[in-house]
Amino acid sequence: MSLIGHSNTAGRRGSHRRAQQGGFRVTLRKVAGKIGLAFAVFLIVSPAILFFIWMISLSIKYEIDNASYPPILIPDRFAWENYKAVLTSNRFIQYFFNTLIVTGSATLFALVVGVPAGYGIARMRAHKAAIVILIARITPGLSYLIPLFLAFQWLGLLGTLAPQIIIHLVVTVPIVIWIMIGFFETTPIELEEAARLDGAGAWQVFRHVALPIARPGIAVAFILAVIFSWNNFVFGIVLAGRETRTLPVAVYNMISFDQLSWGPLAAAALLVTAPVLLLTIFAQRQIVAGLTAGAVKGG
Question: Looking at per-residue confidence, does 13 or 55 come out higher?
Answer without folding.
Answer: 55
